[in-house]
Amino acid sequence: MRVRTWPVVGVVFAALWVFVVGQPLTPISLLRGFLAGLVVGLPVAYVFRRLYGKYVDLGRGARALPYAGFYLGAFTRELLRANLDVAYRVLSPGMPIEPEVILVPLRVESDLAITVIANSITITPGTVTLDYDDETNALYVHGVNGRDPEAIAEPIRTWENYALELFDEDALPSDPPPEIIVSGGERDSTADPQGGGVDDD
């Protein structure tokens, strides 16, 4: 069912308002908070209605909700793991940090999906999105654990699998992801055994 987008956005704003304000968990308080959120959210959504599409497919949105939950769950799990990993590296006497930049080609193509994944990478400790290459549809990602570039890409691929369904992309999660490219190339493959650096011959 297609409906105008701005009222839906207003309702979303109202729901967010309930969480932001921190209403007591009683039905009447939640209802009051939601109604107050509508009073604020609907006018704001109407004023900024040109920033999003005119219509939204509610049926498609309902089908996408489970994948939003899966994405959030996978992101939260990786966020906790990354926090522990970075804390270990910082507190370890040897500081086992070996930075690396990798190029991660994406299967998602919509601006929203790319932005969500790029921001998820940056929010996660130990990784940051440096840039987006429009020609190759790929993200430049900096990671502290350069010894294992595939470990950097693995959670990104998991998020992307859910994002493909969440944002109704053309590609499928079953489609094989493109190979990542490590900025330094294959490790130790071009180094001179005598320590002379890269062989240009």
Task: Describe this protein's structure.
The model is unreliable at 187-201 (pLDDT under 50). The protein has helices at 5-21, 27-47, 58-91, 111-123, 149-166; strands spanning 2-4, 55-57, 100-105, 127-133, 138-143, 181-182. With 201 residues, the chain is α+β, with helices and mostly antiparallel strands. It is built from five helices and six strands, in the order βααβαβαββαβ. Its main location: membrane.
Give the overall average pLDDT: 85
Structural class designation: alpha+beta
Number of strand segments:
6
How many H/I helices? Answer: 5
Distance, first to last CA:
64 Å
* Model regions low in confidence, pLDDT < 50 over at least 5 residues: 187-201
Strand and helix order: EHHEHEHEEHE
What secondary-structure arrangement, pairings included, does this model have?
Layout: E1 2-4, H1 5-21, H2 27-47, E2 55-57, H3 58-91, E3 100-105, H4 111-123, E4 127-133, E5 138-143, H5 149-166, E6 181-182
Antiparallel strand pairs: 1-2, 3-5, 3-6, 4-5
Helix pairs in contact: 1-2, 3-5, 4-5
